[in-house]
């Protein structure tokens, strides 16, 4: 069983009367990829900054690798690599010089060699002498990932890693995240507004809003709780519709034409429906299940904003 | 890791064009002063010693490398704090503005150690700047004007210091000037911890120097008791080292007060930076 890499208990961070993080607790298990989701101002960046000691909580406990942050800061940070907000470097220095400098600050024995390895890993080999000021945003993002991996950390924290990247850059970043997790066994925590990318790489999710955790858990389990959109391709849609009505599922159909039906079903409702369709002599050519993180995200946010609106008496 | 971090700071300072402004300014200013004294130094001395000639008969020339070095040093003291603050005021706030402070603070080195390397880098820069001034003011001046006894006007009147005594006094004066300038550096590095842009700490440091200098020069009874404890009062304490007999009591008081300023500023900086939320 995986052990927890991060154990956050009752974290609070406030600025005056505003609570950026309000009694937040979560766990991140070793070897997992956790997505931190939430709208702007939800407190995601504040939490990520707390995890790398840029911001100190006013209350709560934070344990990383089983160690108390207040007592083992240096030991903990030596095992974390992070890319927070945006990749910033000394623009007047070259890529290699920047990485060497950070390597020395991390206490790496041979910073130049390690920096070259990392530049190669992120696809910047050959540009090591160029000043960072000449780099495009995508190149700086890659360099940001290189500095994050420089000291071979066990935990990687990425804040909006896909921001400003072109489609190829997004695909490359996704591949690098998956490689780091699956081939090198790194535990990854990432925050992003780009939900399809998060969905493609995460094993666990934390959804937060207004400084509080709304839901957290295994991505598969959380997503399976929600109704999924099903697209059925059949030989006779009207006959299929008849079957659906007999199962009292007719009102769940959202769109249909001669050969297609689109409906929203729970996980448990799908197998009996397929069985009835097949037994009813309807040829089922395809069943496409769209279980989207985006739908789940919107559903949870909508639910909680309604609840909050109700509690504080705002108009719905 | 602290030494590695200090090495990093040195690389950053060396790579920034701003760091060379101080050396360029010193070279230009000292160059202009040396040129002026080489071309018309005797007239300048006549102007300065004019009132003394009524009581003293002067023979030969007082203009030599030691005197020129002393004159240059006096003139440069006004400018050096700005040159020091220009670089040291940027050490933390410049990193915050650039976003690179995040990269440093998230490394295993403690925040206190990180800030200590900044104070260390400020000391190295101040020292190198002063060494450059020393080479230009005393070294080049001696090469051009030669050496000789140093004639100094002080509260005691005109004093002639034998040539062999002058160089040790210059070395002590530079050490004391270093302490005074390092106090300025400590102010700007500490201000740099409080700000997220470079301009604030530099302007703040210079404003503080101006206010304290004003308080120190105003003949208001209210300020009489405060004046001896202002660091600006002791910025020119190095001049006392060219008085015979040397007022060691006053000099040690200056050394103690400037050191206390540095220690208090560093302690506050370390306390504040260790608790600061890095939001840039």
Describe the structure.
The complex is a heterodimer of chains A (316) and B (280). Chain A has eleven helices and 14 strands. Chain A is α/β, with parallel strands linked by helices and 316 residues long. Chain A has a six-stranded mixed sheet with strand order 6-7-8-3-9-10, with helices on both faces. Chain A has a four-stranded antiparallel sheet with strand order 2-1-4-5, covered by helices on one side. In chain A, helix 6 links the parallel strand 7 and strand 8. In chain A, helix 3 packs across helix 4 and helix 4 crosses helix 5. The longest helix of chain A is centred in the C-terminal third of the chain and has 20 residues. The C terminus of chain A is likely disordered. Chain B contains eleven helices and two strands. In chain B, strands 1-2 form a two-stranded antiparallel sheet. The model of chain B has no long low-confidence stretch (mean pLDDT 88). Chains A and B meet through helix 2 and helix 3 of A and helix 1 and helix 6 of B.
Mean pLDDT of chain A: 86
What is the arithmetic mean of pLDDT of chain B? 88
Number of helices of chain A: 11
- The arrangement of helices and strands of chain A along the chain is EEEHEEHEHHHEHEHEEHEHEEHEH
Principal-axes geometry of chain A comes out as globular
* Structural class assignment of chain B: mainly alpha
- Total domain count of chain B: 1
Beta fraction of chain A:
25-35%
The radius of gyration over CA of chain A amounts to 24 Å
Number of helices of chain B: 11
In the CATH scheme, the class of the largest domain in chain A would be: Alpha Beta
Note poorly predicted spans of chain A: 309-316
Shape descriptor of chain B reads globular
| Beta-strand share of residues of chain B | under 5%
Helix content of chain A: 25-40%
Ranges of chain B where pLDDT stays below 50 over 5 or more residues in a row are none
CATH topology descriptor of the largest domain in chain A? Rossmann fold
């Amino acid at each position: 069983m995986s052990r927890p890499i991060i154990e956050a208990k009752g974290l609070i961070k406030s600025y005056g009367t505003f609570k950026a993080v309000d009694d937040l607790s979560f766990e991140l298990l070793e070897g997992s990829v956790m997505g931190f989701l939430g709208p702007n101002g939800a407190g995601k960046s504040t939490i990520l900054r707390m995890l790398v000691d840029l911001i100190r909580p006013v209350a709560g406990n934070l344990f990383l690798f089983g160690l108390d942050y207040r007592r083992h800061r240096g030991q903990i940070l030596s095992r974390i690599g992070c890319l927070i907000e945006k990749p910033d470097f000394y623009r007047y220095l070259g890529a290699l010089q920047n990485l060497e400098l950070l390597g020395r600050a991390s206490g790496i024995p041979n910073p130049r060699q390690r920096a070259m390895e990392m530049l190669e890993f992120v696809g910047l080999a050959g540009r090591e002498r160029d000043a960072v000021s000449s780099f495009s945003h995508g190149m700086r993002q890659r360099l940001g990932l290189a500095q994050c991996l420089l000291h071979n950390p066990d935990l990687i924290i990425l804040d909006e890693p896909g921001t400003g990247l072109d489609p190829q850059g997004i695909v490359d970043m996704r591949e690098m995240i998956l490689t780091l997790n699956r081939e090198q066994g790194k535990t990854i925590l990432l925050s992003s507004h780009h939900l399809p990318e998060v969905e493609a790489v995460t094993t666990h999710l934390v959804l937060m809003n207004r400084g509080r955790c709304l839901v957290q858990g295994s991505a598969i389990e959380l997503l399976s709780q929600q109704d999924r959109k099903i697209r059925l391709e059949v030989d006779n849609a009207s006959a299929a519709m008849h079957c659906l009505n007999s199962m009292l599922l007719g009102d769940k159909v959202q769109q249909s034409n001669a050969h297609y039906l689109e409906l929203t079903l729970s996980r448990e409702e799908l197998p009996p429906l397929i069985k009835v369709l097949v037994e009813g002599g309807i040829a089922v050519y395809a069943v496409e299940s769209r279980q989207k993180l985006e739908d789940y995200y919107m559903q949870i946010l909508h639910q909680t904003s309604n609840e909050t609106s109700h509690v504080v008496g705002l108009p719905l | 890791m602290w030494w590695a971090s200090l090495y990093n700071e040195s690389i950053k300072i060396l790579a920034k064009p701003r760091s060379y402004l101080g050396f360029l300014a010193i070279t230009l200013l000292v160059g202009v002063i040396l040129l002026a004294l080489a071309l018309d130094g005797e007239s300048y001395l006549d102007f300065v010693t004019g009132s003394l000639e009524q009581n003293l008969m002067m023979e030969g020339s007082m203009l030599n490398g030691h005197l020129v070095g002393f004159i240059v040093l006096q003139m440069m003291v006004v400018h050096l704090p700005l040159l020091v603050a220009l670089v040291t005021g940027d050490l933390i706030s410049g990193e915050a503005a650039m976003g690179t402070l995040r990269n440093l603070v998230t490394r295993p080195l403690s925040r206190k150690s990180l800030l200590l390397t900044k104070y260390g880098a400020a000391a190295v820069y101040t020292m190198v700047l002063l060494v450059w001034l020393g080479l230009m003011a005393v070294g080049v001046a001696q090469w051009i004007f030669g050496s000789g006894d140093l004639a100094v006007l002080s509260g005691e009147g005109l004093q002639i210091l034998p040539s062999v005594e002058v160089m040790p006094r210059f070395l002590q004066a530079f050490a004391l000037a270093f302490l005074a300038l390092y106090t300025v550096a400590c102010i700007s590095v500490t201000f740099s911890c409080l700000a997220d842009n470079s301009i604030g700490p530099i302007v703040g440091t210079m404003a503080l120097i101006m206010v304290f200098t004003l308080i120190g020069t105003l003949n208001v009874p209210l300020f009489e008791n405060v004046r001896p404890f202002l660091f600006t009062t002791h910025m020119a304490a190095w001049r006392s080292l060219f008085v015979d007999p040397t007022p060691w009591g006053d000099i040690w008081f200056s050394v103690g007060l400037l050191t206390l300023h540095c220690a208090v500023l560093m302690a506050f900086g370390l306390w504040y930076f260790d608790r600061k939320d890095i939001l840039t």
